């Protein structure tokens, strides 16, 4: 925004007609400093919102308060201080909580529960964080605008060079006219804002469980308590962190935590990188002639020997699904939920070495699992699947805090507080800056600028054109012009370039 002082029009001022039939005034009378008064109304009007018993005390207190830009920067310093106290308190509480829970890491959960409630809590915390960071940014921006606001001396210097300054808005342009120490403080305020907004939203985050699960190949009689080869599974329990088949069978008989799924429901429930609400899976298959059919070289199953007489056991084999949610680095490639397609869990890409096993044309995790939907039969590691029994587990989420990042926020918040106090209390700004257009109007009414005399009706665009055009030096001086009222939209107060920039941000 460019401000041009408006010369006051006096009622007894003579007007004449020009050749182009427009009206212009011949001159104006300067207003003495003592004749300019601010209409504030009566005492009751100015303090009407203050209860009568408190008005005298309010007047004494208000007279001691700073005014103008110092009041604004003092308020910014107070707000920054209150936010710093809140940040220190939150950091101390979070640090104490994770230590009391036995965590030695700087990142740890502070609350665990159902994903619905934890996610709502996370949204609420981030809403508060964004409100606080917006207030902090507003306080910092006001101080930056006050520092970069030109003084009357800066304005006169710019006018003497045939240039202009921006008044009433944050401006990079003004930085070329202000003192170096003010420029240094302005840069420090800006630099302390960047890490705050990059780090603040990362201090709290929600995580969810990704369940490992075991896949059992069983006859449908297993769910009704039919016996199985206990020796085979008892010998292997120590090799894996698996759920005992005895416990699974007991849960099938006495609880309702296992859900019966069709083949397609089973595939869609487990063809995910994140398994949050399901656990152990039992594939109910046709009884095989022997367990050797499960020795598919593509699947790393549990057994090292035959399960015995299949007619005498209701449990044939098992495997453990434990592929992480992140893909491995080249040349290795992970294949999630590979068992659905009877593929391997991972492959070494062909690097010119014949020992590298090439992946199939389409991995299960790349979409090959969809081809199993509606498949008849659906074969998994050689077994023909009838239906699935899936363990339902509670969907647990965690609200985590990164205490180390909270300390970073506290550090930059403290630095910002020191800078705002310097701006508000020191003589850094030793002259009254023209922070608002009202400040500029008061200054130019008190001391008119001869360089802009007669330009009271010029728009910012016209002033810039006369100062920056190719033939700027040959431009004639300001010509008095008539005022023609016309309807304007509020949006016209901002240039098109600024509208585009603000919309892009």
From TrEMBL:
<protein>
    <recommendedName>
        <fullName>DUF6536 domain-containing protein</fullName>
    </recommendedName>
</protein>
<keyword id="KW-1133">Transmembrane helix</keyword>
<dbReference type="Pfam" id="PF20163">
    <property type="entry name" value="DUF6536"/>
</dbReference>
<feature type="transmembrane region" description="Helical">
    <location>
        <begin position="75"/>
        <end position="95"/>
    </location>
</feature>
<feature type="domain" description="DUF6536">
    <location>
        <begin position="69"/>
        <end position="223"/>
    </location>
</feature>
<feature type="transmembrane region" description="Helical">
    <location>
        <begin position="183"/>
        <end position="200"/>
    </location>
</feature>
<feature type="compositionally biased region" description="Basic and acidic residues">
    <location>
        <begin position="17"/>
        <end position="26"/>
    </location>
</feature>
<keyword id="KW-0472">Membrane</keyword>
<dbReference type="InterPro" id="IPR046623">
    <property type="entry name" value="DUF6536"/>
</dbReference>
<keyword id="KW-0812">Transmembrane</keyword>
<feature type="region of interest" description="Disordered">
    <location>
        <begin position="1"/>
        <end position="26"/>
    </location>
</feature>
